[in-house]
Amino acid sequence: MEWLSQPAPLVAPALLGMVLVRQFADGLQVRAQIVETEAYTAGDPACHAYRRKTQRNQVMFGPPGHLYIYRIYGLYHCLNIVTEPEGIPAAVLIRAAQLDRLPDWIPANKQNQPARAAAGPGLLCQALRIDGSHNGWRLERAEAGQEGIWLEGSPSWQTQLSIVQTTRIGITQGAEIPWRWYIGGHPAVSRY
Questions:
Q1: How many domains does the chain have?
Q2: Does residue 192 form part of some domain?
Q3: What family name appears in the similarity comment?
Q4: How far is CA 78 from CA 70, 105, 123, 135, 188, in A?
Q5: 42 lies in which domain range?
Q6: Is residue 188 in a domain?
Q7: What angle do CA 75, 76, 81 make, to 5 degrees?
Q8: Distance in angstroms (rounded) separating the CA atoms of residues 50 and 173
Q9: Is residue 132 part of a domain?
Q10: Is residue 189 a part of any domain in this protein?
């Protein structure tokens, strides 16, 4: 997946329609079609690495194809895929996805609205049971009996999707930058 070494604003829309696979040690796999993304890069005031490299954001500095997981509001985890060549801090936030199945740990109030089970970055991580322990993981297919997280499918520039580009949401700095993409009309896009 060398294409992940491109700038985050190119990778973010390309991830739409691809499938994020989460494999658990017991062999269970949950697939989530990516329907919404946001890009964050060096020089962007909303980027966690805007000021400097820290222990918290060091994964953003590469190499590309690794996971940058952080917690927001002290409650929810967010999943990002690191992009750009090593040394340049950048990542794509996976804001929302459509699950192929609802695991039994999904709360009952989400069972009647399956498209909404991962319709936001915190919900996505809850649905895939991704937390801070996954920070720094490499996106790669796991062998049977091992945990793993990887991508399947082709970048969206190779498919026919109705992609909408707009400004990012839920941030106070850099909110005017149009680095949010989503699949138009998809029921799993976050409502933020």
A1: 1
A2: no
A3: Belongs to the DNA glycosylase MPG family.
A4: 6, 18, 9, 10, 16
A5: 2-183
A6: no
A7: 150
A8: 11
A9: yes
A10: no
Spell out a b/e string for 178-192, using b for 16 or more CB atoms within 10 Å of the CB, else e.
ebbbbbeebebbbee
pLDDT digits (tens, 9 = 90+) for 105-121: 887 777 778 899 999 99
Which of 42, 40, 51 has its CA nearest to residue 91? 40
Query: 70-82: string of b/e by CB count within 10 Å (b at 16+)?
Result: beeeeebbbbbbb
**Position 71, amino acid:** R
Contact 62, 182 (CB under 8 A): no
Q: What is the 3-class SS of the chain, one letter each residue?
A: CHHHHCCHHHHHHHCCCCEEEEECCCCCEEEEEEEEEEEEECCCCCCCCCCCCCCCCHHHHCCCCEEEEEEECCCEEEEEEECCCCCCCEEEEEEEEEECCCCCCCCHHHHCCHHHCCCCHHHHHHHHCCCHHHCCCECECCCCCCCEEEEECCCHHHCCCCEEEECCCCCCCCCCCCCEEEECCCCCCCCC
CA separation for the pair 54, 92 (Å, rounded): 18
Q: Which pair of tokens denotes residue 42?
A: 């060096």
Among the listed residues 157, 152, 139, the one whose alpha carbon sits nearest the alpha carbon of residue 100? 152
Q: Tens of pLDDT along 52-110?
A: 888 888 999 989 999 999 998 878 999 999 999 999 999 999 999 999 989 888 877 77
| CATH classification at residue 118 | 3.10.300.10
